[in-house]
Each structure stands twice: as structure tokens, then as C-alpha cells.
Specification:
By secondary structure, this protein is of the alpha/beta class. It is 48% helix and 15% strand. The protein contains 31 helices and 25 strands. Helix 3 crosses helix 17 and helix 6 packs across helix 31. The model has no long low-confidence stretch (mean pLDDT 97). It binds ligand 26Q. Belongs to the glycogen phosphorylase family.
Length: 817
């Protein structure tokens, strides 16, 4: 309930908005028009708080975190904003009175999909928590013209469709041309000696105007509204060109093109580095604009730039924003006139770096040629950072050239972004305990040994406001009925549910809510896939980006194995199971796309096989994204978290499933380890090799999957079905590449790099346990409730408090209205 919320005014605003924006009366308005009208009405409600929040920050002169990220996977804003202003009931009533259903209106909004997966969604959860906790924070990113592609499934194959998310406008954004800044690319550096000091002047460059758009990030029930600032690129007004370049038609056209292309599209790679020039341009573009702006803002109030880090901290979301380091150095050296040592002191007190992956193919390495051509002055600074860093290595390890080779920022013709980020940051953190240990002891061992004090862990979290309160209203209300609503802003309170876990009536209530949510998802599946699924079957779900290390392939191979068993033994005793997948594959990732086709081919055969009596169903949900994720988590019984141990830095869907009462079927990887620690190993289904075992095998050249293939007839049969046309009669060779990836050392230097066959039996065993466990309804309900009640640790509110305590050192601000 929001006491200040005036229903009558809100209603009038909605009706007026429809009139003013569309020249229609409310009864003539389309749902999309009503969405627009309601969104603007919500903006009206929060605008004063947005202003007041920033006034308060100014007044307090509060230290601010800038969360710098190439990705913010925000999803839809309207429903979440209504929840965070605590006016869900009121808005629902207003819309009812006007003859509209709030859920239908929310469905009109396109997802803001300015991110790929985990890393981008984490940034969005962090913004929600920062605002809810009342910490001064900006998210800084790019206003991609096209976000994450929309996925269509045609004939079982993924087809990418551009995501024209801005086509109807974005009601929540505000353009801020007054903060536009110029960003320069290319050209050369001229050195001029003035008063005995060298000046570095970039000339012959191309530039674009960076123009920010602000989006409100609304705290839950606390009047705080923070800002996500995303930058658009516009051509520099030709009249602003250097006198030298004025009238240079060619250059004007080139700059116009640069501006258009730079923010055109989000790179759809997840955990995979693509060394594209445009990507580096995007990185420097939004970083230069954000850092310039942060410095300007600081200088409006402060004299001495050397104290910058008292008021500002830059958190680098992976290495993608690492040019922050040389860009800040450039501004301090070239524009503020600091000495190198002064500038370095400021920079290293301001920047902190988060690592999200150990996958070597995700490490950013830029060819010197490209880097220095695009960012000539920045490259000079990187060279100097590298030179001094190597000196540091050598004084620490005299004569040890191996160390230099392994740790240098520039080596082998490449600029290594992670090494620069580590060298220049005062904090380096991993995103789950296991991941941080692997960083310290394996991947970044040399760096950890040289500067152990920088390394720390911040286990990821998720926002319960979106993933329970908004996504699962039935369960949210039930929880609140039982224990009150403190969990909304203090998730550990949810532990109070534990006493109800063994209560028969509560178990019934809980399972009934799960059942209702399964009906809701079954309806969605019927509408989108045309497949009937039985809400009484076990909903076994794997939704996440498609990547070999996440092993969707192992999941579908196991489905094939189950199907074979059912065919052999039609009377097999088995609880009906619905396997649900959702995953986008990077557009250029052939094997991942083929895996999607395999899932859909298997689904086609199984779903149309009358002989198995609907005991097995397979569904691939098209276009998995934040908005349908909310429905999926709410309806899940089993959460598939089956990455090869050591590969998944944290995972965050594991936490969203747990919050919604699904049981984890997973490996001891990422944050699964901590989930099991919280809920107890007996309330999850853990299988497979440990990260230590995996790493040991990897260091010894892998293993031989042929042995398994030759000795395990069930596995052999499944693999043969990949190449005998069993699931692709029209093209028996279709899945040959997948078969080869598992067995054929010729196709890559190792077979089955992700230990799918090695873990298969233990995975199948775990599934068997799920089948047996589900028959005991009381045990299952108890376990599900215990999962919910033990998920307190995994709120992003806790994660943010840890970042604040150990890294950012911010103070909470109160906003009175
Ligand atoms: C790099 C260079 C060029 C183009 C793209 C990229 C790129 C883009 C996105 C590299 C990596 C990503 C995304 C990584 C990611 O999402 N990592 C996930 O981060 C989550 C939040 O910490 C973790 O929970 C996941 O375990 C981790 O995989």
C-alpha cells in the first residue's frame, strides 16, 4: 500500500494521456496505447522523487558508485516500477475500472534486452538493490538501437530477428542533451612542449557526440530513484568541426556513419570474446563519455582532483569497461595536469574489477595494431602502464622472465585487458566462493601471489522483488500471509517459513500454488508451441544461454536415453516428466545452434509418439528472456544447473529457481556449492565430477570418452542415434558434428571437453532420485519450502551490502517526501 498514491489523480492522468498522445478516448485505446499512457502516469508519480533523490545526493555530497557495464538486462519496467512504488493494488483497480487487465497491459511492453545473460541481468539486479538500499549509484551503459536479438524457431532451427525495442518509444527515458560530450577516435598524437611540459594533442581524429538518456531505477518503497544512464551516439554537427576539417564533406559523412554504427547493436556473445573493431569502439565510446561526465560533475563541487576517489568509485563489470583505466589517466594527465604518479594514485584508488568467467575463450585480448590505431593516445598510456608494471614484476621476481611473459599487459602483439584491470584496480573479485578460489589458485595465480590483498569474493545475488514479488504473486502473497512482508527488503526473514515446511496443510497450499503456476506456464506453452503439457508432470527446467560448458547437450542426451528406456519397456514405472528448455545461441556459434535443432528434433519425435502415453514431453521455449523467465521460474519443480564443474563462475538462475521453490539438480559448480550449503545436500540432487577432478583431468590432457562409448551400451545407443537419422530421418548426417565433438579427437584436439559422457551415468542416477523423490509428495513439498526458506543469502541486497562494506564504502541516503 502506498499512502501518498492518489488513485483518482492517477486515473485522470491515464485518461488524459491517452487523449493527448493518441487523440483517443480511453475506450477506443489499444492495449499498447494504454501501456504508454500508464507508463507516463507512473513516471509522473516518480518524477519528484527522482529529482529529490539527486538533490539529496548533492546536498550530502555523497560518494557515488558508477557501475560501468556493456550490458544491463533490465527486462520490462512497468510492472516492476508499480511494485516498487507500492501501488500494485491501486493501479490494478484503476485499470479494472477503466476496463483493462494490468497483466495484459504489462505484456505490451518490450523487454529492455540490453544484455546477453547472467552478467547483464546481474547488473540489473544490482541497480534494483542499490536503489532499494538507498545508495548513490549510476549505471552507465550503451543505448543500443537493437538489443539482444529475438529468437524465432523455424523448422527447429534458431533464426535471429532484430530487436527493435524502441519502435514505439520508451516512456520512461529522458534525453539529456545538456550532458552531451565528444568522444574521439583515431588520428595521431602530436607532442608539444609548453613551459617545459609535454602536451599530448590528438589530431586528425574522427569524433562522435555521446548523448545520454536517463532511465529511473526505483527503490522499493523508499522514495529513492537512481539513474541508469545509457549513451546514444550522434554525429558531430559539421559546424563544430575543426576549422581544418570544415567543408570536408567526406569526413562529415564518415563521422555520421561512425555515429550510426557505434550504438547500432549489442554483440550477442555470451562468455565468448569476439575481437571486432566495432566492439572496442563501443567500449571506448561509453567509457569516455561516462568518465568525462563523472570528472566534470566532481569538479563542479571540488577543487582538488587528487581526492577524486573520496567521492567516486568505478566498478568494472568484467573487462569490457577496462579502458576506464587509461581514459581516467588521460584526463588526469592531459587535461588536469597531474603527474604520472598522482594520476596513477587516483586511478588505482578509484577502479575496482569484477571477473565473471574463467573460460579462456572469453578473455579479451586486443591486437596492438587495432588498439593503437583506434585509440592512439590511450595506447601510449597503456604502454606506460605496462612498462611500469613489468618493472614491478621484475623487482619482485628478479631475473624471472617467465613471470613477465605470463603477466605482462602487452605481450605477443596483444593488449590483455584482464591484466590491465588487475594491475590498476584496488579490488579484484570473483562472483562465487568456488570461482574466487579457482581464480586465486589457478587462473590468476601469479597475480594473486603478487598482490593477494586485492582479491576478494562477492557471491552473486538476485532481486526478490522481480523474481518473487512480481514474477510469482501467488507464492509472494502466501509467504507474506505466513510470515509478514519483511522478506521483500530483508530476504533472510524468509527463514521463518521453515517451521511450515513439515506442516501438512502448508505443504498442500504450497503445492497448489506451484500447480497454479504450472497451469499458467502450460497455457503459455500451448499458445507459443502448440504443445499440451500436463501440469501434474514434473517440470524439469534448464533455461540459460546455450553454451557447451552449460551442457544442454547432456540434458537432451539423457532425454533420449529415457525415451529409449520407455520404448523398450512401455510399462516402465516413471513419474511423467516435462523437460523444458530455453536458450539463445550466439548467432555465429554453430554447434550451439545445432544443439537447439537437436532439442527440437527430439521434442518432435517424443511429443508425437502416442505409445509413451504422454509420460515424456520436451518443450523448447522460444525467445527466452527476462519477461518469460519470471513465468518459468514460478512453475519449475526441478532446476537444472549442470555445468562442467569449475566452468560456471556463479550462475544466478539457480538462485531464482530456489527462491521459487524448485529443487536443484546440479554439479558442485559456481554458486550451487553455496546453495547446497544453505539448504542441505539432502534437499538437492548433486552429481558429477568435482571442480578439482575436472581441473586435474584438464591438466593431464583430458580423458578418453571412447572407453565409455565402447563399454556402456545405453550411451552408445544414444550416440548412434545422432548419426543414424533416428531424430532426423530427412538428414541422417545432421548431428554428425555433435557426435564428433563427443568422440572424435580429430574434429578438435580433445573429445568431450566438457566431460558429458564422463558425468552421464551419475547424471542419470540423479534423475532417477528425482523420480523417486517426487512420489513422496510430503517430502517434496517440505524440500521445496525449505529451499525457499533457505534462499535468504542469495538476495542481491546482501551482495550489494558486501560490495559497499569491502569495496565501495558508500553511505546510505534517505529521501523524505
Ligand atoms: C566479450 C568480448 C566481445 C564480445 C562479447 C564479450 C562478452 C559478452 C558477454 C563476454 C562475456 C559476456 C558475458 C559473460 C557472463 O554473462 N558471465 C556470467 O556472469 C554471471 C554473473 O556473474 C555468472 O553468474 C555466470 O556464471 C557467468 O557465466
Amino acid at each position: 500500500m502506498n499512502k501518498g498514491f492518489d488513485k483518482a489523480t492517477f486515473k485522470r492522468t491515464v485518461v488524459d494521456n491517452v487523449k493527448n498522445m493518441f487523440r483517443r478516448t480511453i475506450d477506443e485505446a489499444t492495449p499498447q496505447q494504454v501501456f504508454q499512457a500508464v507508463a507516463y502516469a507512473v513516471k509522473d508519480v516518480i518524477i519528484d522523487e527522482w529529482i529529490a533523490t539527486h538533490k539529496e545526493y548533492e546536498k550530502k555530497d555523497a560518494k557515488t558508485v558508477y557501475y560501468l557495464s556493456m550490458e544491463f538486462l533490465m527486462g520490462r519496467a512497468l510492472g516492476n516500477n508499480i511494485i516498487n512504488i507500492c501501488a500494485r493494488e491501486e493501479v490494478k483497480e484503476v485499470l479494472d475500472e477503466l476496463g483493462f487487465d494490468l497483466n495484459v497491459i504489462e505484456d505490451q511492453e518490450p523487454d529492455a534486452a540490453l544484455g546477453n545473460g547472467g552478467l547483464g541481468r546481474l547488473a540489473a539486479c544490482f541497480l534494483d538493490s542499490l536503489a532499494t538500499l538507498g545508495y548513490p549509484a549510476y549505471g552507465c551503459g550503451i543505448r543500443y538501437r537493437y538489443g539482444m536479438f529475438k529468437q524465432k524457431i523455424e523448422n527447429g532451427f534458431q533464426v535471429e530477428v532484430p530487436d527493435d525495442w524502441l519502435k514505439d518509444g520508451n516512456p520512461f527515458e529522458i534525453r539529456r542533451p545538456e550532458y552531451a560530450t565528444e568522444v574521439k577516435f583515431g588520428g595521431y598524437v602530436r607532442i608539444e612542449n609548453r613551459d617545459g611540459r609535454n602536451r599530448f594533442i590528438q589530431e586528425g581524429y574522427q569524433s562522435v557526440m555521446a548523448v545520454p538518456y536517463d532511465l529511473p531505477v526505483i527503490g522499493y518503497g523508499n522514495n529513492v530513484v537512481n539513474t541508469l544512464r545509457i549513451w546514444d551516439a550522434q554525429p558531430i554537427n559539421t559546424f563544430n568541426l575543426d576549422s581544418f576539417d570544415r567543408g570536408d564533406y567526406q569526413k562529415a559523412v564518415e563521422q555520421e556513419n561512425l555515429a550510426k554504427t557505434i550504438v547500432e547493436v549489442l554483440y550477442p556473445n555470451d562468455n565468448h570474446y569476439a575481437g571486432k573493431e566495432l566492439r572496442l569502439k563501443q567500449q571506448y565510446f561509453f567509457i569516455s563519455a561516462s568518465v568525462q561526465r563523472a570528472v566534470k560533475k566532481y569538479k563542479e563541487k571540488h577543487e582538488d582532483i587528487r581526492n577524486f576517489s573520496d567521492k567516486v568509485v568505478f566498478q568494472l563489470n568484467d573487462t569490457h569497461p577496462t579502458v576506464t583505466i587509461p581514459e581516467l589517466m588521460r584526463i588526469l594527465l592531459d587535461e588536469e595536469g597531474l603527474t604520472w604518479d598522482e594520476a596513477w594514485a587516483v586511478t588505482t584508488r578509484t577502479c575496482a574489477y569484477t571477473n565473471h568467467t574463467i573460460m579462456s575463450e572469453a578473455l579479451e585480448k586486443w591486437p596492438i595494431e587495432l588498439f593503437s590505431r583506434l585509440l592512439p593516445r590511450i595506447y601510449q598510456i597503456v604502454e606506460e602502464i605496462n612498462r611500469r608494471f613489468i618493472e614491478q614484476i621484475q623487482s619482485r621476481y628478479p631475473g624471472n622472465y617467465e613471470k613477465v611473459k605470463k603477466m605482462a599487459i602487452i605481450y605477443d602483439g596483444q593488449v590483455k585487458m584482464a591484466y590491465m584491470a588487475i594491475a590498476a584496480s584496488f579490488s579484484v573479485n570473483g562472483v562465487a566462493r568456488l570461482h574466487t578460489e579457482i581464480l586465486k589458485n589457478e587462473e590468476l595465480k601469479d597475480f594473486y601471489q603478487m598482490m593477494p590483498e586485492k582479491f576478494n569474493n562477492k557471491t552473486n545475488g538476485i532481486t526478490q522483488r522481480r523474481f518473487l514479488l512480481h514474477g510469482n504473486p501467488l507464492l509472494a502473497d502466501w509467504v507474506t500471509d505466513k510470515i509478514g512482508d519483511e522478506w521483500i527488503t530483508d530476504l533472510p526473514h524468509i527463514e521463518k517459513l521453515a517451521i511450515y515446511a513439515s506442516d501438512y496443510k502448508c505443504q498442500q497450499e504450497f503445492m497448489n500454488i506451484k500447480y497454479q503456476n504450472k497451469i499458467r506456464l502450460a497455457k503459455y506453452i500451448k499458445e507459443h508451441n502448440g504443445v499440451d503439457v500436463d501440469p501434474r508432470s514434473i517440470f524439469d527446467v534448464q533455461v540459460k544461454r546455450l553454451h557447451e560448458y552449460k551442457r544442454q547437450l547432456m540434458n537432451i542426451l539423457h532425454v533420449m536415453y529415457l525415451y529409449n528406456q520407455l520404448k523398450d519397456n512401455p510399462n516402465m514405472d516413471m513419474v511423467p516428466r516435462t523437460f523444458i528448455f530455453g536458450a539463445k545461441a550466439a548467432a555465429g556459434y554453430k554447434r550451439a545452434k545445432l544443439t537447439i535443432k537437436l532439442i527440437n528434433s527430439v521434442a518432435d519425435v517424443i511429443n508425437n509418439d502416442k505409445t509413451i502415453n504422454g509420460r515424456l514431453k520436451v518443450v523448447f521455449i522460444e525467445d527466452y528472456r527476462v519477461s518469460n523467465a519470471e513465468l518459468i521460474f514460478a512453475a519449475a519443480d526441478v532446476s537444472e544447473q549442470i555445468s562442467t564443474a569449475s566452468k560456471e563462475a556463479s550462475g544466478t538462475s539457480n538462485m531464482k529457481f530456489m527462491l521459487n521453490g524448485a529443487l536443484t539438480l546440479g554439479t558442485m559448480d559456481g554458486a550451487n556449492v553455496e546453495i547446497v550449503e544453505e539448504v542441505g545436500a539432502d534437499r538437492a540432487f548433486i552429481f558429477g565430477m568435482s571442480s578439482d577432478e575436472v581441473i586435474r583431468y584438464e591438466n593431464n590432457g583430458g580423458y578418453n570418452p571412447m572407453e565409455i562409448f565402447n563399454n556402456d551400451q545405453d550411451i552408445r545407443r544414444v550416440l548412434m542415434q545422432l548419426i543414424n537419422g533416428y531424430f532426423s530421418p530427412q538428414d541422417p548426417e545432421l548431428f554428425r558434428d555433435i557426435y564428433n565433438s563427443l568422440l572424435n579427437t580429430k574434429s578438435s584436439d580433445r573429445a568431450d571437453t566438457y566431460f558429458i559422457l564422463k558425468d552421464f551415468r551419475s547424471y542419470a542416477e540423479a534423475h532417477k532420485k528425482v523420480d523417486r523423490a517426487y512420489r513422496d509428495e510430503a517430502w517434496w513439498a517440505e524440500s521445496a519450502i525449505l529451499n525457499v526458506s533457505h534462499c535468504g543469502k542469495f538476495t542481491s541486497d546482501r551482495t550489494i551490502e558486501e560490495y559497499v562494506r569491502d569495496i565501495w564504502h558508500l553511505s546510505k541516503v534517505q529521501v523524505e517526501m
